[in-house]
Amino acid sequence: MAFRDVLNIEVAAGNGGDGSMSFHRAKYMEKGGPDGGHGGRGGSIILRAIEGVESLERLVGRRKFKAPNGAYGEGRLRQGGDGEDVFIDVPVGTTAFDETTGKVIADLVRVGQEKVIARGGFGGRGNSTFVSSTRQAPRFAELGTPGQKRRVRLELRLIADVGLVGYPNAGKSSLLAALSRANPAIADYPFTTLSPILGVVDRVDANGTPVDERFTLADIPGIIEGASEGKGLGLEFLRHISRTRLLVYVLDVTRNPVEELRQLQGELRAYDPTLLDQVSLIALNKVELTDEDLAAMVVDELAEFGLPVVQVSAKGGEGLPELREAIFQMLPDRELWAQNNALEIESDTVREEPLRIEFRIDPAARGVGIINDGQPERVWAVHGGGFEERIVRFSRFMDEAAEYLGNVFKRQGLYNALKRAGAREGDTVEIGTFRFEYFDDEQQR
């Protein structure tokens, strides 16, 4: 299966079911009371991190996901069923971005972790809810709200403790195979590794017996100059480095290791400057191909980078125990590292738009219930504060629900806000497509 670490999808949660406008009917009861039930909640779209998936390829062929709507409410106070949630299984290490805002909406780093990326709509309330001492037979109900829709970019960022970073043919695959139980393809030509490969490295005691301590090691595909600009394979896999707690720069002692390290760090800096802040060390590889004096001279030259250097031979095994132990000694604490490197996730809380009231003069009256005496209309357009959203939920029963909505708006302080803005008796108030006449409640007393 091909490795894919980026995928764009479209998700649409289910709409909430409408509440029922119903009255009880019985053989010997001519006028029964309101008994409309509530609508069900729409299904949500949920990302779920699972084991055993090494890329996003399994999702290819399906780019759109739609959750079922909630069922409508019914008479006899029967509530509509909720829409079933839709789960999208992705590999551990998947991050989801909202394509419109660019914000992170999910970051799954543990098996079984779940995150709602499109929330289902709320069900509407049936007319039985709106009974009061002065409203015995409400002939209106509340409509369900639409489910959330969004375009999502999924990025797989490999979860590993340690990342091997280096240019092609520096010996990363051989080093991974020598240190761990992984068995990557190894050959004497660049770009042998086309996908990140994970291995597990156990700590051993003085007798070579494994102890209960280990780390995961990732062979990141070879970076080439210009990788941060999209050249070669580097850009496709640079993102995986950001998940590692420690970086091992693998340098070939027979090439120009000082210049290679300078270029490697330049590519990391161009992609994400914070990568240079990660705990790092240098594995100077292929020392079996040079003499000790030359290797020692190279180590001295690498001192300018301020990183520990371990001379190793992935082929001959020289220095591997020292490299393994150095990594165990330098690895940052997992929990502390996770706290310091947690991504900022977009909040699930719906922030209500602040109330805005705008004044204008219309040349002629329009809408229902507005009396025009030939004079230009004074119109107060209301935005935010949740009023437009509430109006929409009663759009099918606007005439019947007008009194109820007026009382709600009064309790929520809309009339007082209009009065402070300068509204006068008889002015028109406009909320979305709904218009009504303003009256000063104080003057009515």
From TrEMBL:
Its cofactor is Mg(2+). The keyword Cytoplasm applies. Mg(2+) binds at residues 173, 193. Residues 160-332 form the OBG-type G domain. GO terms for biological process: ribosome biogenesis. Monomer. Belongs to the TRAFAC class OBG-HflX-like GTPase superfamily. OBG GTPase family. An essential GTPase which binds GTP, GDP and possibly (p)ppGpp with moderate affinity, with high nucleotide exchange rates and a fairly low GTP hydrolysis rate. Plays a role in control of the cell cycle, stress response, ribosome biogenesis and in those bacteria that undergo differentiation, in morphogenesis control. This is GTPase Obg. It comes from Deinococcus xianganensis. The lineage of its organism: Bacteria, Thermotogati, Deinococcota, Deinococci, Deinococcales. The gene is obgE.
